[in-house]
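Consider this today:
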Amino acid sequence: MESPTFPKAQMRIVKGSFSYIDPSAYSVEKPYYFSGPLSTSEEHLRTNLIYKSVGEVPIRDLRGFEDRLNLEHNGWEYLKTPTALSDQCLDIGDIQKYLSAATSFLRIHLNAQLVLTYDYRFRKSQPGKSTTSAGDHVDREERTADPAENPHIDQTIEGGPKRVRRHMTEAEAARYLDGSWRIRILNLWRPLYHPVEDAPLAFCDPFTIAKECLIPADRISPQYEGEVYYVAHDSTQEWYYLDKQTPEEMACFVSYDSEPGKGPPCPSDSK
């Protein structure tokens, strides 16, 4: 497995800043974030996450070279597929239609036996009204949020199987979690209506990240206790984005793979 090979000298570079986790802050206590309700007197206990901002990080524009990426070898790719959403206010039927189309597309693209959608989220530079969730496998929480600001991977090696089991029925778990099936957790990201003008999603080449730069952290809610990786900064890390990504260009990236030698998990952040 190797890093993606691009003609880097031909690629446009922009500079961005990322807020990386500060690993020196956790010699005693593990990083954590609690997303549930807390009283005013308890609010100071919500998180112990400490970040340090790093500016002038080179981010290469993949435009013109995006077809060289492959999920199996690079951990992320861009899939050309039309969106099932129109430029109108969304209702629950629109969301269900979109999730169903994405699920069907992935099942065919990956030749998968089973694809489940367990979560979705709208991100806006100026968050507005939250939506409701849709589907039996989908967590029921508010779905509108700011662009992600901290390099991270949504699942750890230990947390991935727990997350998968949470969203399967007993029959599905008995069949697919017996050790004979490859299990992956993937994220899909795309603009809904227009090309991205600000806060595009950037990806770090997973082959440029040292193991010690992946810091496990607990993400806790009243419904679930999960574990994610936050990324500590290292100057050897290489970042990429797709300039003016369109709604027909859907980013697909790995958060967990039960066969870790394939399709490595890919850190992401909004630049």
The CA atoms of residues 184 and 257 lie 4 Å apart. DSSP finds four helices and 14 strands in the chain. Helices lie at 71-74, 92-109, 159-166, 170-176.
